[in-house]
User: What shape does this take?
Amino acid sequence: MSEESDSLRTSPSAASLSESELPLPPAHTGYVCSLTEDLVAKAREELQEKPEWRLRDVQALRDMVRKECPNLSTSLEDAFLLRFLRARKFDYDRALQLLINYHSCRRSWPEVFNNLRPSALKEVLASGFLTVLPHTDPSGRHILCLRPDRWIPSNYPITENIRAIYLTLEKLIQSEETQVNGIVILADYKGVSLSKASHFGPFIAKKVIGILQDGFPIRIKAVHVVNEPRIFKGIFAIIKPFLKEKIANRFFLHGSDLNSLHSNLPRNILPKEYGGTAGELDITAWNAALLASEEDFVREFCQPGPPCDSILGQALPPEGLSPEVPCDDSMRAVKSQLYSCY
Assistant: This one.
């Protein structure tokens, strides 16, 4: 949910310079673009990405990090910084803010981000709570499938599900195709009970949405909800106040009407559980892909870091990510809201 309508490429240090005066990228770089010609054209049209300027834009963002956030412990590699430029349509200032938010989010919710690696989430992955479908949609977007009914609250807390979602997003965003195309979410709420829904209260909702909208470099292009019970009205009532209007307009509620779903996601890419022709839903391939990335996540999320980044101490985290403790009445208020849907 990182996409914004603003498409200007701006920088305090570069805005006043002509094209010929902008700093050139380093002579040597390890980045090699993997985009097809069609995706290069799509990135140019939708993200304001110009191949001839790409490495110069990356260098401009790198220089801004070094100058304005010298204590920010972050990768400065071309491929990593490109994620943030693409998510903010090559607006340097907004890309820098997204990068700061990204790290602020990780430090503000340690129970989610500490020791974040696939092997620590084997139980969640084995449950089938989430997977990525093997086929992309007609626009080349991966489909993240969520099935909350597979979660048994007595087995582990809801934060483990959030960890698994974030783990999956981190894996998906490594692909340049995903950086350009974005992703689609398919959420199946079949069998979600009142007691299970009550775990996802305003405190959790604000933090998750704060990350997805303002703290992670991914473009969520649509959220398709199927088999939602009446209780979902209460769930969505909790979520909607924290959603930006553009993102709220990307939610599509289909109920049990699979024909409605198929008008957005064709049958040939869906498993038979959702009226598709792509075979039964299989979680093993995606789980294997995540587990094969164990070393990458250990390097990124399981290394001791500095006790405090001064730049993060000065920056405000995205809305909903402040470290306040929810009040004792929060769960009671959530249940009251959910009961009203019956």
About this structure: The radius of gyration is 21 Å. Confidence is low (pLDDT under 50) at residues 1-8, 11-28, 307-311, 322-342. The beta strands are 130-132, 142-146, 183-188, 220-226, 251-255.
